[in-house]
Structure formats: structure tokens, C-alpha cells
Design goal:
This protein is an alpha/beta fold. It folds into three domains: 107 residues, Trna Endonuclease, Chain: A, domain 1; 64 residues, Orthogonal Bundle (434 Repressor (Amino-terminal Domain)), CATH 1.10.260.40; 99 residues, TBP-interacting protein, N-terminal domain (Trna Endonuclease, Chain: A, domain 1), CATH 3.40.1350. It has ten helices and 16 strands. The strands form two sheets. Strands 1, 2, 3, 4, 5, 6, 7, 8, 9 and 10 form a ten-stranded mixed β-sheet that branches. It has a six-stranded mixed β-sheet with strand order 11-12-13-14-16-15, with helices on both faces. Helix 5 crosses helix 6. The radius of gyration is 23 Å and the shape is elongated.
């Protein structure tokens, strides 16, 4: 199935489940909002998903408390199977049908596919509690399964992935279900170091930092800078007037979906807004407080 057809299938799944969606071509292809915010990159072959795309997708997801997911049909070597989670650069990868099961029917996958085979997550507390109820030591249980005692010790201590065959043996011996569904919709956390792409972005980021915003830079998105205080500002930095209208239209569609305020920061502009996005001149930033910037950004027409 071509990427366009996969995208239509994914959008149909989301729309049928009540999601508001917006398309973009960059580090993500679809942003969808309902009770959760989803950032989806859609590819036929997930091996074409680059590390740079993954980095930018993580930056956006971190700032918006969103879930980033890669949707695809195959790798260079194999066809992706439904109900299994693959990964690329720490971004979960699933098939369109797995997404449909997840979104429309709340059926979560239970297995990961990795180089070593199939893996699952098990409930550490259930493993320890059940073993102790059976009056088995870690060594005794390990010998019954045919593994090293250290494996039992490590999996009781913290949540780790376990080879599917071993997990199934444990469930059989202990007569207890302990394999956990994979929460593909979980919001990832983690700081990623970001850098401005040019002098203009660096100067704008510096000025926003000085008035109290936490700054992150992003590429391959309908905006260039995240500026976060109590309110999130999605800020586009433009020096090319011809690009402003196109970028503003893309940004407007994005903020309509994610429900965040936005401003466009430019070198010079006679317009107070472009395509409904408020405009602030770079030279005027130093005269504004963070509250004033937020107030202007909230005038963005969604």
C-alpha cells in the first residue's frame, strides 16, 4: 500500500473515533487530538525514518506532552505484523491495523519485536508476590524455568523486557498472568539538547529566555521555536516574507488541533497578523514581558 493510502486509512481510523486531525509534511505527517494528543509519522518502509526526524518528533512530543508513533507496513527485511510493537530510534512503530485496534477498540499490543526476537513487559510486583506465595526462592524458580537466578532478581527489582518464551514459561509454572500490554499511548519524557539553526533563531531564543521562557528549537515542523512558561507558545521565526504566509497557514492548522497559542516573529512586517497568526517584530521583543507575549499569542485565530 502506498504512503498516501496508508495515511487515508490512518486518518479514517482517527476521524471515526472522534479525533481532530491536521496534516503536515515533516518529522510528522498527522497530528490528532481527542483525549490524547498524537503525533504520527507515516511511512511504507519504517527504515526510511531518520534519526534527525526522530529527534525532532521527540522534541515536539516532550513539549506538548504528546505521544509520538511511527505507522508503517514493513522494514527493508520484513513485513510488520499486526499486534506487535517495533521501534526505531526509541519511537514505537505499529501497523495501521494495530493503530485501529488501539484507538477504536482499546486493544493494546502485548509484544515487542527486537533483534533477539519477541519480547514482553511483565509486572515485577506480580512476579515477586506470586513467587513468594508459592514459597519458591529466586534460584528455585530460575531452575524450573531454565534460566539464571539473576534474570528473576532483575525482573523483580524493576520493569524490564523479557523474552516471550521465558515469560510464558513463568506464567505456566506460577499459574499467574503477568505479561502487561504495551502502553503505546504513554507520553514519553526526557530532555533533548536543541540548537538554533541560524543567527535569527538564536537571537529570538535568547530574547525569549531573558523574559522568562524555557526555549527549545525544532526543525521539520510548522514552527521553529517552543517557548514555555505557564502557557506554551509555539513560535515561528521567519525572515523571508514570501515564506511567511505559507508557514502561517501551516502553523494555524497546527495550533487549531493542539489548542496552543502562537506568534510569528519577523525581522520587519507591516502586518499585525498573517493568516490569523499574530506578528511580533524581533526588535520589539526586548520591550515585552512574558505575559505580554502570551497575551499577543492568545489572539491567534484557530
Amino acid at each position: 500500500m502506498l504512503k498516501e493510502a496508508v495515511t487515508r486509512e490512518v486518518e479514517k481510523t482517527l476521524e471515526n473515533s472522534g479525533y481532530t486531525i491536521c496534516e503536515y509534511t515533516g518529522c510528522f505527517d498527522v497530528v490528532a487530538k481527542k483525549d490524547k494528543l498524537l503525533l504520527l509519522k507515516i511511512l511504507q518502509n519504517i527504515d526510511s525514518f531518520s534519526e534527525e526526524q526522530a529527534k525532532n518528533l521527540k522534541i515536539i512530543a516532550n513539549n506538548l506532552e504528546a505521544t509520538a508513533i511511527l505507522i508503517g507496513e514493513n522494514t527493508t527485511r520484513e513485513k510488520l505484523k499486526d499486534g506487535i510493537v517495533y521501534e526505531r530510534f526509541e519511537i514505537p512503530c505499529i501497523t495501521p491495523k494495530t493503530l485501529d485496534s488501539l484507538i477504536a477498540h482499546e486493544i493494546f499490543p502485548k509484544m515487542y519485536r527486537d533483534k533477539g526476537g519477541l519480547y514482553v513487559e511483565i509486572d515485577s510486583a506480580v512476579l515477586k508476590e506470586t513467587r513468594e506465595k508459592k514459597k519458591l526462592t529466586q534460584r528455585e524458580l530460575a531452575e524450573m524455568v531454565g534460566i539464571n537466578k539473576k534474570v528473576i532478581y532483575e525482573h523483580e527489582k524493576k520493569e524490564l523486557r523479557m523474552i516471550l518464551d521465558i515469560a510464558q514459561k513463568l506464567e505456566g509454572i506460577l499459574n499467574k498472568k503477568m505479561i502487561k500490554p504495551v502502553d503505546v499511548l504513554a507520553v514519553s519524557r526526557g530532555e533533548i539538547q536543541t540548537h538554533p539553526k541560524d543567527v535569527l533563531e538564536k537571537d529570538v531564543g535568547s530574547k525569549l529566555s531573558k523574559i522568562g521562557f524555557k526555549i527549545d528549537y525544532v526543525k521539520q515542523a510548522p514552527f521553529d521555536v517552543f517557548a514555555k512558561e505557564k502557557t506554551m507558545i509555539v513560535s515561528d521565526v521567519e525572515s523571508n516574507k514570501r515564506k511567511m504566509k505559507k508557514r502561517a497557514a501551516e502553523l494555524r492548522g497546527f495550533i487549531h488541533t493542539v489548542e496552543k497559542p502562537a506568534v510569528m516573529i519577523t525581522e520587519e512586517s507591516k502586518e499585525e497578523n498573517v493568516e490569523g497568526i499574530p506578528v511580533i517584530k524581533r526588535k520589539d521583543l526586548k520591550e515585552l514581558s512574558s505575559k505580554e507575549v502570551v497575551k499577543i499569542a492568545k489572539k491567534a485565530k484557530k
